[in-house]
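Here is a protein:
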Amino acid sequence: MTFEKINGQAEVIELLRTMVDGDRIPHAQIFLGSEGVGALPMALAFSQYAMCENRTEGLACGQCSSCSKSSKFIHPDIHFTFPTVGSKATSSMFAKEWRTALHENPYLNVQQWLQSIKAENKQGNITKDECASIVKKLSLKTFEGQYKILIIWLPEYLKKEGNRLLKLIEEPPEKTLFILVAENAEEILNTILSRCQIVKFKPLSDEVIQNALIEKGVPSLKAVDLAHLSNGNLNRALSLVGESENNNSTLFLAWMRICYLGKPQDIVAWSEKFATLGRENQKHFFDYGLFFLREYMVLKLTNNQKVRLSEVELTTAKNLTKVIQYGHIEPISNILTDSAFHISRNANPKILMTDITVRMNKILRAKAMV
Protein backbone atom coordinates (compact mmCIF):
# COMPACT_ATOMS: atom_id res chain seq x y z
CA MET A 1 0.00 0.00 0.00
CA THR A 2 1.43 3.38 -1.03
CA PHE A 3 0.28 6.94 -0.34
CA GLU A 4 -0.97 7.49 -3.88
CA LYS A 5 -3.44 4.63 -3.43
CA ILE A 6 -5.00 6.23 -0.36
CA ASN A 7 -8.39 7.84 -0.95
CA GLY A 8 -8.41 11.43 0.33
CA GLN A 9 -6.67 12.39 3.63
CA ALA A 10 -4.13 14.64 1.86
CA GLU A 11 -3.34 16.58 5.05
CA VAL A 12 -2.50 13.42 6.97
CA ILE A 13 -0.34 12.12 4.13
CA GLU A 14 1.66 15.36 4.09
CA LEU A 15 2.12 15.22 7.86
CA LEU A 16 3.39 11.64 7.77
CA ARG A 17 5.72 12.33 4.84
CA THR A 18 7.23 15.23 6.78
CA MET A 19 7.79 13.00 9.80
CA VAL A 20 9.67 10.36 7.81
CA ASP A 21 11.65 12.74 5.59
CA GLY A 22 12.73 14.81 8.59
CA ASP A 23 13.52 11.71 10.67
CA ARG A 24 11.16 12.96 13.37
CA ILE A 25 8.77 10.04 13.73
CA PRO A 26 7.05 9.76 17.15
CA HIS A 27 7.70 6.33 18.59
CA ALA A 28 3.97 5.85 19.34
CA GLN A 29 1.05 7.22 17.34
CA ILE A 30 -2.68 6.67 17.32
CA PHE A 31 -4.37 6.94 13.91
CA LEU A 32 -7.84 7.90 15.09
CA GLY A 33 -10.77 7.83 12.69
CA SER A 34 -14.20 6.28 12.27
CA GLU A 35 -14.78 3.18 10.16
CA GLY A 36 -14.02 3.47 6.47
CA VAL A 37 -11.99 6.72 6.52
CA GLY A 38 -8.71 4.98 5.72
CA ALA A 39 -6.78 4.88 9.00
CA LEU A 40 -5.66 1.26 8.49
CA PRO A 41 -4.63 1.75 4.82
CA MET A 42 -2.72 4.85 5.95
CA ALA A 43 -0.86 2.82 8.56
CA LEU A 44 0.10 0.33 5.85
CA ALA A 45 1.23 3.09 3.48
CA PHE A 46 3.15 4.91 6.22
CA SER A 47 4.98 1.71 7.17
CA GLN A 48 5.95 1.01 3.56
CA TYR A 49 7.14 4.58 3.09
CA ALA A 50 9.23 4.48 6.27
CA MET A 51 10.82 1.17 5.22
CA CYS A 52 11.39 2.04 1.54
CA GLU A 53 15.03 1.99 0.45
CA ASN A 54 14.58 4.47 -2.42
CA ARG A 55 12.03 7.12 -1.46
CA THR A 56 11.65 9.88 -4.04
CA GLU A 57 9.48 13.00 -4.05
CA GLY A 58 7.35 11.84 -1.14
CA LEU A 59 6.58 8.41 -2.56
CA ALA A 60 7.77 4.90 -1.84
CA CYS A 61 9.53 3.44 -4.88
CA GLY A 62 7.37 0.29 -4.94
CA GLN A 63 10.26 -1.66 -6.48
CA CYS A 64 12.82 -2.31 -3.77
CA SER A 65 12.90 -5.49 -1.70
CA SER A 66 11.37 -3.70 1.28
CA CYS A 67 8.45 -2.32 -0.77
CA SER A 68 7.83 -5.69 -2.35
CA LYS A 69 7.51 -7.37 1.05
CA SER A 70 5.55 -4.49 2.59
CA SER A 71 2.98 -4.56 -0.21
CA LYS A 72 2.46 -8.28 0.40
CA PHE A 73 2.26 -7.74 4.18
CA ILE A 74 5.17 -10.11 4.80
CA HIS A 75 7.95 -7.70 5.77
CA PRO A 76 9.77 -9.32 8.72
CA ASP A 77 10.04 -6.00 10.58
CA ILE A 78 6.38 -4.94 10.19
CA HIS A 79 4.22 -6.76 12.72
CA PHE A 80 0.44 -6.82 13.07
CA THR A 81 -1.83 -7.19 16.07
CA PHE A 82 -5.61 -7.36 15.65
CA PRO A 83 -8.73 -8.80 17.34
CA THR A 84 -9.00 -12.57 17.28
CA VAL A 85 -11.23 -15.15 18.96
CA GLY A 86 -10.18 -17.54 21.69
CA SER A 87 -8.73 -16.92 25.16
CA LYS A 88 -5.21 -17.91 24.09
CA ALA A 89 -5.30 -16.83 20.45
CA THR A 90 -2.54 -14.72 18.92
CA SER A 91 -2.51 -12.74 15.69
CA SER A 92 0.15 -15.02 14.16
CA MET A 93 -2.41 -17.84 14.16
CA PHE A 94 -4.49 -15.84 11.66
CA ALA A 95 -1.68 -14.29 9.60
CA LYS A 96 -2.79 -15.91 6.34
CA GLU A 97 -6.41 -14.80 6.75
CA TRP A 98 -5.24 -11.31 7.72
CA ARG A 99 -3.14 -10.88 4.59
CA THR A 100 -6.04 -12.08 2.44
CA ALA A 101 -8.43 -9.64 4.13
CA LEU A 102 -6.06 -6.70 3.62
CA HIS A 103 -5.59 -7.53 -0.05
CA GLU A 104 -9.36 -7.75 -0.57
CA ASN A 105 -10.41 -4.66 1.41
CA PRO A 106 -8.07 -2.69 3.71
CA TYR A 107 -11.08 -0.51 4.68
CA LEU A 108 -12.84 -3.46 6.34
CA ASN A 109 -14.50 -3.27 9.75
CA VAL A 110 -14.14 -5.64 12.67
CA GLN A 111 -17.43 -7.38 11.92
CA GLN A 112 -16.25 -8.31 8.43
CA TRP A 113 -12.88 -9.44 9.77
CA LEU A 114 -14.33 -11.68 12.47
CA GLN A 115 -16.79 -13.20 10.01
CA SER A 116 -13.87 -14.02 7.70
CA ILE A 117 -12.23 -16.09 10.47
CA LYS A 118 -15.55 -17.76 11.34
CA ALA A 119 -15.88 -16.19 14.77
CA GLU A 120 -19.61 -17.04 14.79
CA ASN A 121 -21.01 -16.03 18.20
CA LYS A 122 -17.62 -15.31 19.76
CA GLN A 123 -16.53 -11.80 20.65
CA GLY A 124 -13.21 -10.47 19.40
CA ASN A 125 -10.39 -9.63 21.77
CA ILE A 126 -6.63 -9.06 21.97
CA THR A 127 -5.34 -11.55 24.50
CA LYS A 128 -2.61 -11.53 27.13
CA ASP A 129 -0.81 -14.17 25.03
CA GLU A 130 -0.77 -11.69 22.14
CA CYS A 131 0.69 -9.03 24.44
CA ALA A 132 3.42 -11.47 25.49
CA SER A 133 4.09 -12.19 21.82
CA ILE A 134 4.42 -8.45 21.13
CA VAL A 135 6.99 -8.01 23.89
CA LYS A 136 8.99 -10.95 22.57
CA LYS A 137 8.92 -9.83 18.91
CA LEU A 138 9.90 -6.26 19.65
CA SER A 139 12.79 -7.33 21.88
CA LEU A 140 14.57 -8.78 18.82
CA LYS A 141 16.82 -6.81 16.51
CA THR A 142 15.55 -5.69 13.13
CA PHE A 143 15.96 -8.26 10.38
CA GLU A 144 16.52 -5.95 7.43
CA GLY A 145 14.60 -2.69 7.83
CA GLN A 146 15.49 0.63 9.40
CA TYR A 147 12.67 0.28 11.92
CA LYS A 148 10.63 -2.31 13.76
CA ILE A 149 6.97 -1.36 13.32
CA LEU A 150 3.97 -2.74 15.19
CA ILE A 151 0.52 -1.92 13.80
CA ILE A 152 -2.21 -2.57 16.37
CA TRP A 153 -5.58 -2.51 14.63
CA LEU A 154 -8.37 -1.58 17.05
CA PRO A 155 -6.47 -1.24 20.36
CA GLU A 156 -9.91 -0.82 21.96
CA TYR A 157 -9.94 -4.64 22.09
CA LEU A 158 -6.90 -4.68 24.38
CA LYS A 159 -9.02 -3.50 27.30
CA LYS A 160 -7.15 -4.13 30.59
CA GLU A 161 -4.52 -6.24 28.82
CA GLY A 162 -3.17 -2.95 27.49
CA ASN A 163 -1.49 -2.46 30.86
CA ARG A 164 0.99 -5.16 29.84
CA LEU A 165 2.27 -2.91 27.05
CA LEU A 166 2.58 0.37 28.94
CA LYS A 167 6.29 0.15 29.74
CA LEU A 168 7.12 -1.03 26.22
CA ILE A 169 5.19 1.85 24.65
CA GLU A 170 6.75 4.39 27.00
CA GLU A 171 10.32 3.10 26.64
CA PRO A 172 10.50 1.09 23.41
CA PRO A 173 13.68 -0.43 22.00
CA GLU A 174 15.60 1.82 19.63
CA LYS A 175 14.00 2.42 16.20
CA THR A 176 10.74 0.79 17.30
CA LEU A 177 7.47 2.39 16.15
CA PHE A 178 3.94 1.78 17.40
CA ILE A 179 0.96 2.65 15.19
CA LEU A 180 -2.38 2.13 16.93
CA VAL A 181 -5.30 2.29 14.49
CA ALA A 182 -8.37 3.18 16.55
CA GLU A 183 -11.99 4.18 16.06
CA ASN A 184 -13.01 5.14 19.60
CA ALA A 185 -10.48 6.85 21.89
CA GLU A 186 -12.85 6.56 24.87
CA GLU A 187 -12.40 2.79 24.90
CA ILE A 188 -8.59 2.96 25.07
CA LEU A 189 -6.80 3.10 28.40
CA ASN A 190 -5.90 6.68 29.34
CA THR A 191 -2.42 5.49 30.24
CA ILE A 192 -1.94 4.40 26.63
CA LEU A 193 -3.48 7.56 25.18
CA SER A 194 -1.12 9.73 27.20
CA ARG A 195 1.89 7.95 25.71
CA CYS A 196 0.89 8.41 22.07
CA GLN A 197 0.65 11.24 19.57
CA ILE A 198 -2.83 11.31 18.04
CA VAL A 199 -3.32 11.75 14.29
CA LYS A 200 -7.00 12.43 13.53
CA PHE A 201 -8.76 11.38 10.33
CA LYS A 202 -11.78 13.22 8.91
CA PRO A 203 -14.70 11.44 7.21
CA LEU A 204 -14.16 11.17 3.46
CA SER A 205 -15.99 13.59 1.19
CA ASP A 206 -18.70 12.34 -1.15
CA GLU A 207 -16.47 13.26 -4.09
CA VAL A 208 -13.57 11.14 -2.83
CA ILE A 209 -15.83 8.12 -2.28
CA GLN A 210 -17.53 8.65 -5.63
CA ASN A 211 -14.17 8.64 -7.43
CA ALA A 212 -13.05 5.53 -5.54
CA LEU A 213 -16.21 3.69 -6.60
CA ILE A 214 -15.86 4.77 -10.23
CA GLU A 215 -12.28 3.42 -10.23
CA LYS A 216 -13.74 0.07 -9.21
CA GLY A 217 -16.12 0.08 -12.15
CA VAL A 218 -19.27 1.43 -10.50
CA PRO A 219 -21.37 3.52 -12.95
CA SER A 220 -21.13 7.27 -12.27
CA LEU A 221 -24.77 7.84 -11.34
CA LYS A 222 -24.81 4.89 -8.93
CA ALA A 223 -21.48 6.03 -7.45
CA VAL A 224 -23.00 9.43 -6.69
CA ASP A 225 -25.93 7.83 -4.82
CA LEU A 226 -23.77 5.37 -2.89
CA ALA A 227 -21.28 8.09 -1.95
CA HIS A 228 -24.11 10.12 -0.45
CA LEU A 229 -25.47 7.13 1.46
CA SER A 230 -22.06 6.17 2.84
CA ASN A 231 -21.73 9.21 5.14
CA GLY A 232 -17.95 9.44 4.67
CA ASN A 233 -17.41 5.70 5.10
CA LEU A 234 -15.79 4.07 2.05
CA ASN A 235 -16.25 0.60 3.52
CA ARG A 236 -20.01 1.16 3.74
CA ALA A 237 -20.07 2.41 0.15
CA LEU A 238 -18.22 -0.72 -1.00
CA SER A 239 -20.64 -2.90 0.97
CA LEU A 240 -23.61 -1.23 -0.70
CA VAL A 241 -22.33 -1.91 -4.22
CA GLY A 242 -24.69 -4.47 -5.74
CA GLU A 243 -26.94 -4.46 -2.68
CA SER A 244 -30.30 -2.77 -2.34
CA GLU A 245 -29.83 -2.56 1.43
CA ASN A 246 -27.46 -3.98 4.00
CA ASN A 247 -28.31 -6.71 6.48
CA ASN A 248 -28.38 -4.39 9.48
CA SER A 249 -30.96 -2.14 7.83
CA THR A 250 -33.18 -5.16 7.08
CA LEU A 251 -32.94 -6.38 10.66
CA PHE A 252 -33.43 -2.97 12.23
CA LEU A 253 -36.48 -2.08 10.19
CA ALA A 254 -38.01 -5.49 10.95
CA TRP A 255 -37.37 -4.88 14.65
CA MET A 256 -39.03 -1.45 14.53
CA ARG A 257 -42.20 -3.03 13.14
CA ILE A 258 -42.16 -5.65 15.92
CA CYS A 259 -41.63 -2.91 18.51
CA TYR A 260 -44.62 -0.96 17.22
CA LEU A 261 -47.00 -3.93 17.00
CA GLY A 262 -45.88 -5.39 20.34
CA LYS A 263 -47.14 -8.94 19.79
CA PRO A 264 -45.64 -11.18 22.52
CA GLN A 265 -45.02 -14.17 20.23
CA ASP A 266 -43.19 -11.98 17.73
CA ILE A 267 -41.09 -10.37 20.47
CA VAL A 268 -39.98 -13.76 21.78
CA ALA A 269 -39.22 -15.08 18.29
CA TRP A 270 -37.25 -11.94 17.43
CA SER A 271 -35.24 -12.10 20.67
CA GLU A 272 -34.31 -15.72 20.00
CA LYS A 273 -33.18 -14.82 16.48
CA PHE A 274 -31.17 -11.83 17.73
CA ALA A 275 -29.36 -14.04 20.26
CA THR A 276 -27.93 -16.15 17.42
CA LEU A 277 -26.26 -13.23 15.63
CA GLY A 278 -23.06 -13.14 17.69
CA ARG A 279 -21.68 -10.31 19.83
CA GLU A 280 -20.02 -8.29 17.08
CA ASN A 281 -23.09 -8.43 14.83
CA GLN A 282 -25.27 -7.43 17.77
CA LYS A 283 -23.09 -4.39 18.51
CA HIS A 284 -23.16 -3.35 14.87
CA PHE A 285 -26.96 -3.70 14.89
CA PHE A 286 -27.24 -1.06 17.62
CA ASP A 287 -24.63 1.15 15.91
CA TYR A 288 -26.74 1.03 12.76
CA GLY A 289 -29.83 1.90 14.82
CA LEU A 290 -28.14 5.07 16.07
CA PHE A 291 -27.14 5.97 12.51
CA PHE A 292 -30.71 5.47 11.28
CA LEU A 293 -32.08 7.57 14.16
CA ARG A 294 -29.72 10.45 13.32
CA GLU A 295 -30.81 10.45 9.69
CA TYR A 296 -34.45 10.12 10.72
CA MET A 297 -34.10 13.20 12.91
CA VAL A 298 -32.62 15.17 9.99
CA LEU A 299 -35.54 14.09 7.80
CA LYS A 300 -38.11 15.08 10.41
CA LEU A 301 -36.50 18.45 11.11
CA THR A 302 -35.81 19.51 7.53
CA ASN A 303 -38.00 17.26 5.36
CA ASN A 304 -34.84 16.90 3.26
CA GLN A 305 -35.11 13.96 0.88
CA LYS A 306 -31.31 13.76 0.55
CA VAL A 307 -30.69 12.18 3.93
CA ARG A 308 -28.16 9.34 3.89
CA LEU A 309 -30.72 6.53 3.68
CA SER A 310 -31.42 4.06 0.92
CA GLU A 311 -34.80 4.03 -0.83
CA VAL A 312 -36.18 1.31 1.45
CA GLU A 313 -34.80 3.00 4.57
CA LEU A 314 -36.18 6.37 3.48
CA THR A 315 -39.66 4.93 2.90
CA THR A 316 -39.63 3.43 6.38
CA ALA A 317 -38.33 6.69 7.89
CA LYS A 318 -41.17 8.63 6.25
CA ASN A 319 -43.71 6.18 7.66
CA LEU A 320 -42.17 6.51 11.11
CA THR A 321 -42.64 10.29 11.14
CA LYS A 322 -46.24 9.63 12.16
CA VAL A 323 -45.10 7.41 15.03
CA ILE A 324 -41.79 8.70 16.41
CA GLN A 325 -42.08 12.25 17.69
CA TYR A 326 -39.30 14.58 18.83
CA GLY A 327 -39.80 13.62 22.45
CA HIS A 328 -39.33 9.93 21.61
CA ILE A 329 -35.90 10.36 20.02
CA GLU A 330 -33.87 10.82 23.21
CA PRO A 331 -35.23 7.77 25.09
CA ILE A 332 -34.84 5.58 21.99
CA SER A 333 -31.28 6.81 21.52
CA ASN A 334 -30.54 6.03 25.16
CA ILE A 335 -31.92 2.52 24.76
CA LEU A 336 -29.72 1.84 21.73
CA THR A 337 -26.60 3.30 23.35
CA ASP A 338 -27.12 1.42 26.61
CA SER A 339 -27.84 -1.82 24.77
CA ALA A 340 -24.59 -1.61 22.79
CA PHE A 341 -22.75 -1.11 26.08
CA HIS A 342 -24.46 -4.06 27.78
CA ILE A 343 -23.80 -6.36 24.82
CA SER A 344 -20.10 -5.46 24.91
CA ARG A 345 -20.16 -6.44 28.60
CA ASN A 346 -21.60 -9.88 27.78
CA ALA A 347 -25.22 -9.29 28.73
CA ASN A 348 -27.62 -12.10 27.85
CA PRO A 349 -28.80 -11.01 24.38
CA LYS A 350 -32.17 -12.77 24.53
CA ILE A 351 -33.13 -11.20 27.86
CA LEU A 352 -31.78 -7.81 26.79
CA MET A 353 -33.64 -7.77 23.48
CA THR A 354 -36.91 -8.90 25.06
CA ASP A 355 -36.65 -6.13 27.63
CA ILE A 356 -35.81 -3.30 25.24
CA THR A 357 -38.43 -4.40 22.68
CA VAL A 358 -41.15 -4.14 25.35
CA ARG A 359 -39.76 -0.74 26.40
CA MET A 360 -39.68 0.42 22.78
CA ASN A 361 -43.32 -0.63 22.35
CA LYS A 362 -44.33 1.53 25.31
CA ILE A 363 -42.41 4.49 23.88
CA LEU A 364 -43.85 4.15 20.38
CA ARG A 365 -47.39 3.69 21.67
CA ALA A 366 -47.17 6.61 24.09
CA LYS A 367 -48.48 10.01 23.14
CA ALA A 368 -45.86 12.43 21.86
CA MET A 369 -43.77 13.75 24.71
CA VAL A 370 -43.04 17.44 24.93
Summary: Residues 205-243 form one domain. The chain has a mean pLDDT of 90. The chain has 17 helices and five strands.
